[in-house]
Structures are given as structure tokens and as C-alpha cells.
Design goal:
Blueprint (H helix, E strand, L loop, with lengths): L1 H20 L3 H14 L3 H21 L5 H21 L4 H16 L3 H9 L8 H16 L7 H16 L10 H21 L2 H20 L5 H28 L3 H18 L2 H7 L7 H29 L2 H8 L1
Helix pairs in contact: 1-2, 1-3, 2-3, 3-4, 3-5, 4-5, 5-6, 5-7, 6-7, 7-8, 7-9, 8-9, 9-10, 9-11, 10-11, 11-12, 11-14, 12-14, 13-14, 14-15
Length: about 325
Amino acid sequence: PPDAAREVIDTELRLVYAYLAAGQAPVAAILGDRMAHTARATGPAAKAGLYAIQGYLSSSASLPPDDNAGRAADRARALALAAYLDKTFPNDPSTDNARIVLGQLLSKEGRHAEAFEALARVGPSSPKLANARLMQGVAAFELIRPQAKTTPEQKHNYFKRVIEDLDKVPAPQAAANSDDASVYVRLRLLISQLQLLAANPQAYKDAEKTAEEAGKLVAKYTGLAPEEVLGLGFQAEENRLRAVYAQVVPDFKAAKYKEVVDRVTPMIAEFVQSGSALKKVEAAKDLGDATMVKAAAQRLDDYRREAFLVLALQTAIRQGDVPLAKSLFE
């Protein structure tokens, strides 16, 4: 009878999960893999496959440090099963989770184009959509950076697709938990970094706007931890400055010094007023692990000094504006 058959399938699925939860990852992987290929019910088959992928990866992580062949074999099985679920059960919710795992595995192997496509297929209803799009953006970054072995046309197409996909991720509520808020802000920061990579005048303007908006989001999300508020804020400001710098350098090269001074001088006044980012970290209280925050603060301080102050100083010297050059030097 149909009900009896379904009960058998559900029992098998619970057994796979039980083995996984009990720390018997290899058994869970084998049983789940078999069930994914043989179960007639789509939902349980896809879920069993996802459990099996988790089992393969857990098994790989538990192997001795020198068992490279064993780890490679487990990763290969997980990758093959994730690809099978992606093809066989394209509309099942468990498949979206498998696509995320597939994207991670492919990225680790340097197969960024395949990772991009797998992650792009994660549906808009997935609870992990923001995470998937964040990883998709990282894959795109590898595909469009100058060193990538992709053609200009391919870079343009990847850029267009990834910006469209990342822009569609809905913003969480202001009271969102720390994880959701952090992922979304990082997503917006990544968009600004991708726009900087596009390296054209309009993209630089877009990057400045996106980074500025990301900085405002940091203040909006009340659930962010103190170290995230500082770290993400520093990253947003650095991205904004890089976008502005990219816009004013052509003016400097064209000897349009007034335009450079008009744009850069107010920003330097902002630096003076806000003070050192690193000192803000040192004065902050209740920070968790401040290692990454200090690194972000140091990068921001360095960029302010080595890019903006130097550019402004060179501009003042070329203009023959001794008072301005002296104040900047000081």
C-alpha cells in the first residue's frame, strides 16, 4: 500500500539522520547516497542526499592528517552527489542546500565558473539565499578580476549577472539577528568591490554610492556585535574612498587640479574630524575578537594617508599652493 511504502521511506530517512547525528558519518553517507539514487519520493530522496553529502564531508574532516587520498575521495563523492541532486531534483528545497555545498567545493578546487553557476541556481525562496549570493559574488570576483583567465566579454557578462542577482536579495529588518545583518552588509560591500573591479567611470560612481549605503546599514542594524559595527563600518569607508580615488585620479592626470582639490579637501577634513580608525578600536569596549577589526582599521588609516593625503599633497605642490601643502604635510 502507498502509506506503507511511504512509511518505509520515512523510516530509512530517519535512520540516515540518526547515523549522522550519532557521529557515524561514513554509514550515513553510504545509506543516504543509496537512498538518493533509489528512493522514488522526491523530497526524501533529496534530503537523504543532503544528509549523505554532510556525511561525506564529516567523514573527510575526521580522517588522519596524512590521509590525503581518503579526504580527496570523500570530497569527490560529496561533489558528485551534490551535482546529481542539482540535476535530478532541481526544485526541491534540499537541493538548494546541496547547491551551496557544491559551490563551496567547486570554489575550493578553483572551479569558479562552475561554482558561480551552481550558486546562481539557488532559488529566491531559500532561507540561505543571502549566503548563497555572497558566495556567488566571491566566485564572480575571481572570474572578473584582472588576473582571471576570462575574456572581456565574459567578465562583462559575469559582472552584469552577479550584480542583478545580488541586488535582488531582500534586506532583513532593522532588528535582524547578528548573522543575518552581517551577511547582508557584507553582501552590499561585495557589490561595491565588484563595481570597483569593473573599472569604468559609472561603475566607480555606483561603487561610491553602494559603499556609502552599506555604511548606513551598519548603523541601522541594532543586532550587530560591537566588533562588527566597527569592522564593517571601516570596510564600507575604505570601499567608498577607493571609489572616490578612482574618480579623481583621471582629473589629476589631466592637470585638473582644482577639481581634485574640491573633491579631496572636504574628505580630508572628515578624516581629521573622525580621527584614527585604529585608535577607535583601541578605545572601544566589549569587543570580541578584535584581530580582524584592527586589520580593517589599519587598512583604512593607511589608505587615507597613502592615497588621499599623498594625492592632495601632490596636487597642492603642482598648483604651487604652499600653505595648503604645508597644512597637508603637517
